[in-house]
Amino acid sequence: MPDMSLGDVTIHYEEAGQGPLAFVFCHGLYGGGDTFTEEFAFWKNHFGRVISWDVRGMGHSSQAAKYSLPLYASDLARLLDGLHIDKPVVLGFSWGSTVAQQFAIDYTDRCAAVVLESGTSEVNVAASEYWYQAAEAMRQGKPGAQQIEPQHMDSVVAASRVVAGLREHPLTPRLKHITCPVLVTAGAKDDMNRGAGPSVIMSRNIPNCRLHIFQDGGHTLHVEKRDEFRKLVLDFCREHGIING
Length: 245
Hints:
By secondary structure, the chain is an alpha/beta fold. It has a single domain, classed as Rossmann fold. 37% of the residues lie in helices and 17% in strands. It has helices spanning 40-47, 69-82, 95-106, 125-140, 153-165, 197-205, 221-224, 226-239; strands spanning 3-5, 10-17, 23-26, 49-53, 89-93, 113-117, 182-187, 209-214. It has an eight-stranded mixed β-sheet with strand order 1-2-4-3-5-6-7-8, with helices on both faces. Strand 3, helix 1 and strand 4 (49-53) form a beta-alpha-beta unit. Helix 2 (69-82) crosses helix 3 and helix 4 runs antiparallel to helix 5.
């Protein structure tokens, strides 16, 4: 279980394979990179190298003095520097897609392609209030709140507030700055995002973008629609000359 010290935080990551190209997974809010390790064998066969990582304060990464969306993205950039990975394909799942969007905006020359799975770039009033109240309930340990390990609390609360803040500070207007190819995927039956609407919004604001909606898909597409999702991503990368065969 390798760790990398970035100075202000220690980031845990898992990897398999080797080579100049890498497939990098950004996890959802209540999980960690280890939720993706069962996928390593498949993606390694096509990209040579596959990485999953835990954002600061979650999973097996250390706690930190500060948490913010730009810092989560900066941690990924510094991790890739330390691993000598230049331009990976980045898959951001759920909340991890928010990190992936920020990374692609801040480091436009660092992505071969980005896959945004079941994500959002903005929220409405109801969703903002939900995520803010959820963060407060977790922080206060209220009955019925999501149970969070103490060492993860600060980061999970901060991340929840990031999502709530997408109402007043949406990423949508900044998506035009993403220059790499982007595949946006959504499930029409996604209960978390109330369908595919957020993904449609993202796709309309990213210049070099393809949108695919799984009509019978839910939130965790890379699991519940595994074969179709894998084929979709591989075909997309082939179309853009990122992989061959």
